[in-house]
Amino acid sequence: MIKQSLLAALLLIAPTAAHGQDQTPAADPARLKADVEKLVSFGTRHTLSSATDPKRGIGAARNWGAAEFARISKACGGCLTVERIADRFDGPRAPDGVIVENVLAIQKGSGDPAHVIIIAGHIDSRVSDPMNFTADAPGANDDASGTALVIEAARLLSKHKHRATIVYALLSGEEQGLWGGRLLARHAKEKNWPVAAMLNNDIVGGIKGTDGTIVDNRVRVFSEGIRASEDLAAQLARRGIGGEDDGPSRALAKAAIRAGKQSPTIGLDVLAVRRPDRFRRGGDHLPSLELGYPAIRFSVGIEDYDHQHQDLRTENGRKYGDTVDEMDFAYLARVTALNVVLASELAAAPPAPASVSIDGAVSSDTKVSWTPVKDAVAYRLYWRRADRNDWTDSQLVPADAAAAGRTLPGVIIDDHFFGVSALSADGSESIVTFGGLPPAQ
Ligand SMILES: [Zn+2]
Predict the structure, then answer these.
(1) In the chain, how long is the greatest CA-to-CA distance?
(2) Mind giving me the DSSP string for 308-327?
(3) Mean pLDDT computed over 390-413
(4) Could you give the residue range(s) of every CATH 3.40.630.10 domain in the chain?
(5) 406 and 381 in contact (C-beta within 8 Å)?
(6) Better-scored residue on pLDDT, 16 or 348
(7) Would the pLDDT of 205 be above 60?
(8) How far does residue 309's CA lie from ligand 1's centre (Å)?
(9) Which among 49, 248, 271, 320 would be 20 to 30 A from 403, CA to CA?
(10) Are 343 and 199 within 8 A, CB to CB?
């Protein structure tokens, strides 16, 4: 009976309605500012700086991050497990090698602990010369902002239980070679975490561009099209059906757009940039993409190149350096809120269907069927004309009617794209699995 009424309510939910609506969590700009100032107070957080000095360097910063996670855990009755993972890396930016250590806080899921959502930022910083590990490198926006966001997200999300496991990750070694991102992705693989989403936050606390242009109502979300993890045969299969815009990373970016629209009080328009990262630059989500995990990068709507990766100095009356006074903490709080809304929806939703098949060649109709998802109460079947980027039509299919698939009369397979998401009883929705491809390896 209860299930029936839930389903009846669910059937009334429009595709753009609202898991997170009016529940926008209150990320606190003052607390975010205090955390960024604390991170800056370690002088430099360069990956090659001291790992053992109690006051200055990346070791002190990591210890502080771990202590913050422990404090948050205490407030939620021990709901977080704080772990450190480390490995040795070397490369052109660490020729003698360096131990890269990530600090993780793990909030185990109460319903499906094997299903994992990751929220990450990098704790290391740099100045103009990537090898200079002694000069002050405040790294306020890049990426104390992302680090503070991850800690604030842990504070907010740990107030509730979640169906899936949420991993809060402070990564090191980003500026030397995306090593913390690689270490995290490898750890996820070793632990067999089925990562449903990796949300990387890198430079998320500013509204001013280099030329003074203000952009305070937009956040950029970067996602890959062609999948780094697919072999040539899988890439050719994707090319053959026109699936370049619908891999899991792109589907996650579309979920971020939806989360933004569902929470208008956050006031952030998601600019979903259709490339893995900024032009010829990278971030810690890329190693996750290489291992096949749906991953995206959040970054400010406009960047200020005078205030990132720069020695602190004044030249011809122009100030350089990544300092706190160039940031906007109300904006950082809004990007934090968007992460929290998206992560809590994905952590409440079942996993996405493993695969969706479509059938209907030389027919007026298309039949869509999909692999069942444990605990899904319903599915949403999406389609759109093949000249569109975003889903335009959808139909709700109750789980008990899903086994037979669904035929869409008059929707011609050649001219449309199809996908299916899985829903929980409260309407929380997974990312959309694109139709017509074999299950991912
Ligand atoms: Zn960065």
Answers:
(1) 73
(2) SS--SEEETTEEES--GGG-
(3) 96
(4) 29-348
(5) yes
(6) 348
(7) yes
(8) 9
(9) 248
(10) yes
- Domain 353-434: CATH architecture, name and number where available: Sandwich (2.60)
Tokens standing for 337? Answer: 């809120």
Ligand 1 center to residue 275 CA distance, Å? 17
pLDDT tens-digit series, residues 122-135: 999 999 999 999 99
So what's the pLDDT on residue 23? 62
Closest CA to 301 of 221, 215, 222, 223: 215
Q: Which residues pair with 165 in a beta bridge?
A: 116
Separation of CA 101 and ligand 1 centre (Å)? 16
In DSSP notation, 349-372 reads SPPPPS-EEEE-TTSSSEEEEE--
Residues of the chain with CATH 2.60.40.10: 353-434
Q: How far is the CA of 201 from the centre of ligand 1 (A)?
A: 8
- Rounded to the nearest integer, the mean pLDDT of the chain is 93
CA distance 441 to 435: 16
| Kind of pairing between the strands at 218-222 and 269-273 | parallel
* Dist CA 396 CA 295 (whole Å): 26
- What local confidence, expressed as pLDDT, does residue 60 receive? 98
pLDDT digit string, tens, across residues 89-112: 999 999 999 999 999 999 999 998
Q: How far apart are CA 335 and CA 415, in angstroms?
A: 37
CA of 160 to the centre of ligand 1 (A): 30
pTM of the model: 0.94
The β-bridge partners of 167 are: 106, 118
Please state which of the four CATH numbers 3.40.50.40, 3.30.360.10, 3.40.630.10, 1.10.10.10 is assigned to the domain occupying 29-348. 3.40.630.10
Q: Name residue 379's beta-bridge partners.
A: 397, 422
Rounded Cα gap, residues 124 and 141, in angstroms:
11
**Token pair in block for residue 301:** 């709507």
CA–centroid distance, 339 to ligand 1, in Å, is 17
At 16 the pLDDT is 39
CA of 187 to the centre of ligand 1 (A): 21
Averaged pLDDT, 421-440? 93
Quickly tell me which residue has 């809004």 as its tokens. Answer: 334
Both tokens assigned to 211? 């030329």
Element (H, E) at 124: none
| First vs last C-alpha separation in the chain | 39
pLDDT over 80 (residue 21): no
Band (20; pLDDT cuts 50, 70, 90): very low
